[in-house]
Specification:
- The model has no long low-confidence stretch (mean pLDDT about 80).
- With about 90 residues, this protein is α+β, with helices and mostly antiparallel strands.
- About 25% of the residues lie in helices and about 40% in strands.
- The protein has one domain (about 5-90).
């Protein structure tokens, strides 16, 4: 995905996450984290144990993360950060 596409997605999430998820189609879940946290608890319900996860801060910049594999299931993942962050995660399988 291009940086422009990512920024458009982030803008769309900020305006209407439900419409964005419908546009992205099946196999994609968008998680919005409004309150800064070191751990984002994501209930994606995609049925995938190791989905592709992209994380972006509230400004639309890509940020590094780690996935806690000990707590990961086919419908849930915990995304860990070094410092509290707010933003968006796009999860795909």
């Amino acid at each position: 995905m291009s940086e422009t596409t990512i920024r458009n997605i982030i803008d769309a999430i900020n305006h209407n996450a439900d419409l964005l998820e419908k546009h992205l189609g099946e196999g994609v879940y968008v998680h919005r984290q409004d309150v800064p946290s070191k751990v984002w608890a994501v209930h994606h319900k995609l049925g995938s144990l190791r989905p592709l996860i992209e994380t972006y801060d509230s400004g639309g910049n890509r940020i590094g993360h780690a996935v806690n594999r000990k707590t990961q299931t086919f419908e849930f993942c915990a995304i860990d950060f070094a410092v509290p962050m707010s933003g968006t995660a796009i999860i795909r399988f």
